[in-house]
Records
---
Amino acid sequence: MTARILASSAAPVRQSSVRAHNLALALQTVANSANPLSRASISAATGLTRATVSALVDDLIAGGLLTELDPPPRTGAGRPAAGLALASEGPAGLGMEINVDYLAACVVDLGGTVRHRLVEHADQRLSDPPTALGHLARLARRARTLAGDLRLAGAALAVPGLVSPDGVVRVAPNLGWQDVDAAALLREQLGVPVTVDNEANLAALSELRTTGGPSFVYISGEIGIGAGIVLDGVLYRGMRGWSGEIGHLSVHPDGPECRCGARGCLERYAGQEAILRAAGVTELTDIDATAAPALGEAASALGLALAGVVNLLDVDTLVLGGSYAPLVPWLRDGIAAELRRHVLTAELAPITLRAAALGADAAMRGAADAVIRSVLEDPATWLSGAGRT
Ligand SMILES: [Zn+2]
């Protein structure tokens, strides 16, 4: 690794790659600022000359990535500078999610605003992948139209399963899918580049951007249960990208059989179906304080699994997302009791247990954000036309 970095930094740097680097630097400086920036402030923040910044900014405006806002009213001598901001009518990201009991799509603009979102409840268990993804593509196209037909920079899909880097869903036990080339199937339908990632990973990235982290484990509770591990501000994906399968931690080795083939998995005690069954209701929204005692077994199982996570990773924050987010008041005490019992350092360091910031939309928001980030990190490709649709 080190040798490769040395070799590449010793090679002469091409003019085009300097420009690509500087375009990204200028664009990200604007993206990271809470207020519109002048060319002079970009120059001051980046160390690039004013002439260079002006040329870069002109290119970014012409390519639809930056927009020039009207200058604020004159308050003293001199002409106030026009502020630069990310163009809300610039390239947008399409975020999609397929989960066991719903399909969802949203369009997020370059500034991070959700322009439209659609959620459709439909059972996807043992669904035929081309049919299910065709259905999702239609939902996504509708969201795109309702968002004002913004140009898409690309699309990303969140799935409840293990995904290989080329966008193939290797296994999604609760959908009954195996080796499904979801990226290719959706690319064909949508006509834009598509990436695919695990839903808990994408939701954890959303949480990281919303709250700043820096270290936490995000637990996404749906029919299945996944986890996104964020350490020092970076998502830990594991060697092959398959980390976080907390739903298949065994909490009772002799427990009931799971869809994965093993026994006593956490999902069998704390997945959405187990929670609804325990509470004696058909909708999560029907669960209130009176149902809290019935969620005791789910809370204990979750607490036991999470105690193992804390003992292993030494994180101080656990974030409950997906369908768990609104249930935190009824799950909290049961989880905390197991953490106190099983976490070695429980007496030494408190553990924060909280609901996710973005609720149920976190995974598809994370998917749309992944597209937006790819533009912010490499605006030169977008400007060259390769990224336009
Ligand atoms: Zn299992």
---
Amino acid sequence: MALDPAETRAILDLYPSPRSAMLPLLWLGQNSDGWIKPETVTAVAQLVGVEESEVVSVLSFYTMYRTQPPAQRRLQVCRSLACAMRGAGEILERIREETGVGPGETAPDGAFSVEVVECIAACDHAPACLFNERMTGPLTPNRALGMLRGEGGEPE
Ligand code: FES
């Protein structure tokens, strides 16, 4: 099971209402499995006392939750103001032109995925991104393509 019983209990004990524990429990499941498996959705719904559809609805709202197995190389490009003004949109467009993979998509072979996220608190490195959960920037189209193709440019 994705949810460690002791950690689950500790999270539930932090909140007066079990429903409030939904997000951290989902996070626990994602950290355990790399993504939110359907059985995690079922378990969390039961633990916090809501319908599974409500958990699915929450998952669809927050971009930090993965509902598919993660790609080998994950690029998350910030699209908030500072990064947008410094070319994040152009980077995403170039990635799509060169690879055929747009925001929210995974390469057919599962080698990489591209996502957009809101501000990751690295505005001074705009346009910034997370690559396999590690922040880096400023990002350029060529650097982004290099990271996605496994040709270098990854954060140190
Ligand atoms: S706006 Fe992109 S990191 Fe803050």
